[in-house]
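Journal club prep — side note

Before the paper discussion, L.F. wants everyone to see what a predicted structure for a comparable chain looks like in token form. Sequence:
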Amino acid sequence: MPRTNRDRWLALALLLAVLAAVYGLLLQPLFIAPLHTVNAKITDLQQRDARLRGLLLQQAQVQQRVQALQTRGSSASFLAEPTAELATAALIQQLEGIVTESGGRGCAIVNRTPLENESQAGRYQKVIVQVRLRCGNAETVAVLHALESAQPFLFVDALGITAQRYFAIPGAQQVQEGGLDVSFNLFGYLRPSAGVRNGQ
């Protein structure tokens, strides 16, 4: 090989080596690597943007679901009154109405006493009234059914029924036969406040 050709090839090899060194030492760390980093960030931002757009498309559906849950939470399932005292008074009034309507003249309230709820810990506050009735058999069934199917939801607990040979209805002229002495605890729940709901 002539010397001039060999010199040309050596010069070309040196030039390629210099270019490779420049690329490795200058272009790669100063330009190419930052471009790769920027490209990765762009890809990440595009993915986040796609997720956010998907959430925005679901916004109406999510709002409808939230409204449905709020409506269900604010429905007549809970006692409407804001305090236990007011709820107790409303519970007694509702009891009197149900006994009058379902029991008629064959049923009367002997006693109704508000009870303190000893276990107030938890999300739902219970309002309890201790009840004693004197009713006929059919009237007892009608009253208990009306109480447990009422709105807001009411619950009967600690039910005790004693048969009586004779029983007197307050205000009635004569003693009736075959009555029941019925005692139970009637309770409902106050609506949980926003602070309690968020704290749970």
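L.F.'s comment for the group: Confidence is low (pLDDT under 50) at residues 194-200. Keep this in mind when we get to the figures.
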